[in-house]
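Work Package 4 report. The design task specified in the project plan requires that, given a folded chain encoded as structure tokens, an amino acid be chosen for each position. We show below one input record used in the internal validation round.
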């Protein structure tokens, strides 16, 4: 008779609860904020690459430096809302949409 192995898989939410605490705790809130900043950087990078722009070209269009664009894309820098809007509108030709849950 075969013995049943227990699955060690857990849901992503359960993993986050265990590692960072339940939703609403300080550590979980910090994780969520950092993840959103990371996500914005990835979205900018993907849009830039899709438009065949280098970091330097995007920086030039926006009036900032290649180093700053790199730091945003690599989640090493907080970004001001006004700069984010300039990157999206002037640099990438897009529109920023915000929503609240």
């Amino acid at each position: 008779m075969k013995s049943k192995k227990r699955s060690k898989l857990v849901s992503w939410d359960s993993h986050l609860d265990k590692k960072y605490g339940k939703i609403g705790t300080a550590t979980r809130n910090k994780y969520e904020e950092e993840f959103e900043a990371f996500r914005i950087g990835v979205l900018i990078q993907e849009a830039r690459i899709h438009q065949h722009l280098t970091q330097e070209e995007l920086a030039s269009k926006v009036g900032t430096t290649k180093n700053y664009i790199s730091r945003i894309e690599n989640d090493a820098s907080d970004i001001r809302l006004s700069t984010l809007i300039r990157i999206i509108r002037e640099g990438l030709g897009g529109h920023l949409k915000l929503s609240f849950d």
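The chain is about 60% helix and 0% strand. Validation will be extended to a larger panel in the next phase.
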